[in-house]
Design goal:
The complex is a heterodimer of chains A (about 325) and B (about 475). Chain A has about 325 residues and is of the alpha/beta class. Chain A has 13 helices and 10 strands. Chain B has a domain of about 240 residues: Immunoglobulins (Immunoglobulin-like, Sandwich), CATH 2.60.40.10. At the A-B interface, strand 1, helix 3, strand 5, strand 7 and strand 8 of A face helix 1, helix 15, strand 13 and strand 14 of B.
């Protein structure tokens, strides 16, 4: 790699960072958009149907008694419920009648650290929103404003890492100067990744998701070649019909529940340029790239937060 | 390499779909229910949505109208009545709504009518009807348009055919002749008087090809209707037209009970108005009660005959008489319009009470009340009171419904649009839309402005 490419990349990252500081979360929102909110007294199993019906994987919650924002419902909530039910199979009645405001109790019982539900005002700089998202382990951040008259909270929207990176890819011409290969940038998570094979029971894979704090587990064959991926959002499809009856399935069988419009698994090599990665983010709904070598062996994973951290904090 | 996923440079084809040979059968179900929810949004019916009749009724009438989109509007005219066609356009525009208050239009309208009359000597009382109506609408305080029109006038064919005026009936039903004179072989009429369901066949008039007629007994009020000519929905060019709530072009008739129509003729103000609107007075129509100056000669004489048969009314002031008449007429003029009540029209006989009438408190009394109303209406639209009022047309377009159609399978990027919606029309802002209640869950949605953007928030909530 020549010196000029590195310099160009450094300048480009700094320029993108200035862009993030100059824009607000509000700027990312479309002119007209929908936002699906759920009342906290809704049953968990019904909230699942609503997510699937609307083709979304997360929704802000609303406490109608206090008129306050009450956190985000995400796939990790359902994973918690699955784990709770798996270790307490006698509590079917409780799980069946569980309301969204009971999810915190489940978290406490199974001992997971609750996700930090940090929120931000829509008119704060986008850069601040990104930093806050990285600090909390969450992949999304709710935008909360106050009503001018009643001073009550308004859930304006929810930003995800993907939306922000797509916004950057769409609006920053500087991304084309990010020509250094990702292998050089020390942003790929390598080493011994959590993984499973097609015959691993799906409940074990779900446990891997929570233990590792990851959003997906790669599925490898005997030669450690990448065959598929089990994502946290796949649990929504797993439990959509009869709740929690199919936890004995293997992960391969569980993948049969995936919807037809699943986009596939995105892979890259360590020689790919960051610009190519950003361009793929612009075009497709992708949440992570699996880094493979020439043999198709899995060598690492590049997540959206890896990319975001690089843009926010590196190349000073 | 035995592996299936692509590798190498990042490009479009890196998206590896080949591994995803699994499919979920439930997917189609999911879509179905998704669509169902969204569709029910457009109906905006809270409560029992499932099999109740009201939405169906409306749908059906909509369906009838939908067919006629392909019909060219004025093509029929061009052939045999080109002059009329020219002059009709400004008129049909001005009369398309029953509450147009444009001071310019009547002037133009009467102008046109006069030219028409001088050219043709006699024609088309439809024009005259427009004309009168517009005059009247300028003076909102004064009386409703329908009462001016005697039953003969409402049926243009009467004057055209030179047939005798229908006998004056003291009953509420008024005989009305409806004619179709634009050809065809099988002619039916359908309209609000049959609930847009039944079709009434028209009989060909012997010796006059292309002319069909039927005599109907209709209650006073506004009737909207269309003709079905050889399985094609059409409207007559010889009768007043208007756009109804669904945006369809329909013919309409306003029928007053015969007794009322006579008194109206005495209205001095009305006569003045009519003169104001004229360019030149017509030499054909002298006499003190000729508010029909613009009308063709045969019709005028028919009216005069009618007037002679009646005893002269009491010398009450015209306005007070009108006020009395208006009291008797239904406030609902159809199409969502209701009568305007000026302060002077309120009856001094009424007084305020502190008790809530049982109709509003006791559900059984309420039901009885509505059943009685239903019987009194004696219309085919039984249980019409069960039908919720129709939405104004601009609220029918729910942008959330557009969203679902955009996210049909095959539309790539539907997943990728971060919930973006079309920009809503400002009139739909701050309205509450609801889904039907399914599985004890209610979804309400509302579009609000957030700064310079539009947030469509959908809240799912259980019924407590």
């Amino acid at each position: 790699m020549t010196e000029s490419v590195s310099v160009e990349q450094q300048l480009a990252v700094q320029s993108i960072r200035r862009f993030l500081k100059s824009k607000t979360s509000y700027d990312v929102l479309p002119v007209s958009y929908r936002l699906i909110v759920m009342d906290t007294s809704l049953l968990v199993k019904k909230s699942l149907n609503i997510l699937l019906q609307n083709n979304i994987v997360s929704a802000p919650l609303w406490d109608s008694h206090t008129s306050k924002f009450a956190g985000l419902l995400t796939s990790s909530d359902f994973i918690n419920v699955i784990q709770y039910y798996f270790s307490n199979p006698d509590k079917f009645e409780l799980v069946d009648k569980l309301q969204l405001d009971g999810l915190k109790d489940i978290e406490r019982v199974i001992g997971v650290r609750p996700l930090d539900t940090g929120s931000i005002h829509p008119f704060k700089p986008l850069y601040d929103a990104c930093c806050k998202m990285i600090e909390s382990r969450s992949r999304r951040i709710p935008l909360i404003d106050q009503d001018e008259e009643t001073h009550r909270e308004i859930v304006v929207s929810v930003l995800t890492q993907y939306r922000i990176l797509k916004f950057v890819a769409l609006n920053c011409r500087e991304t084309r100067h990010l020509r250094r290969p990702i292998g050089e940038l020390d942003i790929v998570t390598g080493g011994e990744l959590l993984s499973c094979n097609m015959h691993t029971p799906v409940i074990d894979v779900i446990q891997l998701l929570t233990q590792g704090g990851v959003s997906s587990v790669p599925i490898l064959d005997n030669q450690r070649r990448l065959v598929n991926v089990y994502e946290a959002v796949d649990v929504l499809g797993l439990i959509k019909g009869g709740m929690y009856n199919d936890l004995s399935l293997s992960v391969g069988e569980a993948l049969m529940r995936r919807s037809d419009d699943f986009e596939g698994v995105y892979t890259c090599t360590k020689h790919d340029k960051l610009f190519t990665i950003m361009d793929t983010i612009r075009k497709s709904r992708v949440h992570r790239f699996f880094v493979v070598d020439d043999e198709g062996l899995l060598t690492g994973v590049l997540t959206l937060s890896d990319i975001l951290k690089y843009i926010l904090f590196e190349e000073n | 390499m035995g592996n299936t996923h692509s590798r190498g440079t990042m490009s479009d084809n890196i998206k590896d779909v080949s591994m995803v040979d699994v499919s979920s059968a439930d997917e189609s179900n999911k879509r179905g229910s998704q669509r169902a929810i969204v569709q029910s949004f457009s109906k905006l019916d809270i409560g029992d949505h499932s099999e109740s009749q009201p939405p169906l009724l409306r749908r059906r009438s909509t369906l009838i109208f939908d067919d006629e989109d392909e019909i060219p509007r004025h093509e029929e005219n061009v052939g045999h009545r080109s002059e009329l066609d020219v002059s009709e356009n400004p008129l049909s525009g001005s009369s398309s709504s029953a509450s147009v208050h444009d001071n310019r239009l009547p002037q133009r309208g009467s102008d046109v009518v006069f030219q028409q009359q001088q050219r043709q000597g006699s024609d088309d009382s439809a024009f005259q009807q427009h004309h009168l109506q517009q005059q009247l609408q300028q003076h909102q305080q004064s009386p409703d348009p329908n009462s001016v029109l005697s039953p003969q006038q409402t049926s243009p064919s009467v004057s055209r055919n030179g047939s005798e005026p229908p006998a004056e009936s003291p009953k509420t039903m008024v005989p009305v002749e409806i004619t179709w004179q634009q050809g065809g072989s099988k002619i039916y009429v359908t309209g609000s008087f049959t609930g847009w369901r039944k079709m009434i066949g028209l009989v060909p008039v012997s010796g006059q090809p292309g002319l069909f007629h039927i005599k109907l007994q209709l209650p006073p009020g506004t009737h909207r209707f269309r003709f079905i000519v050889d399985n094609e929905l059409r409207f007559s060019d010889y009768m007043p037209t208007a756009t109804d709530q669904m945006g369809n072009f329909v013919n309409y008739l306003e029928i007053a009970s015969p007794a009322e129509s006579q008194d109206q003729l005495q209205h001095p103000q009305l006569q003045e108005d009519l003169r104001d609107g004229e360019i030149q007075p017509s030499p054909l129509v002298p006499g003190k009660q000729q508010h029909h100056q613009a009308s063709p000669l045969p019709l005028t004489t028919a009216d005069q005959k009618l007037n002679e048969n009646r005893t002269a009314p009491e010398p009450l002031s015209a306005r007070s008489k009108l006020a009395l008449q208006i009291e008797e007429e239904p406030d609902d003029m159809g199409d969502g319009y209701s009568r305007f009540h000026g302060a002077h029209e309120t009856s001094p006989l009424y007084s305020y009470i502190t008790d809530i009438p049982a109709v509003f408190t006791d559900s059984s009394v309420m039901e009885q009340y509505y059943l009685t109303l239903d019987q009194q209406q004696s219309n085919q639209q039984s249980m019409a009171w069960l039908t919720p009022p129709q939405l104004p047309p601009h609220l029918e377009n729910v942008i959330l419904n557009n969203y679902s159609s955009a996210s049909e399978p095959g539309d790539s990027g539907s997943e990728n649009n971060s919930g973006a919606l079309p920009i809503p029309n400002h009139v739909v802002l701050n309205h509450l839309a609801t889904s039907s209640i399914k599985h004890n869950t209610l979804c309400v949605a509302s579009i609000v402005r957030y700064k310079r953007k539009y947030a469509t928030q959908m809240l799912y909530s259980p019924l407590q």
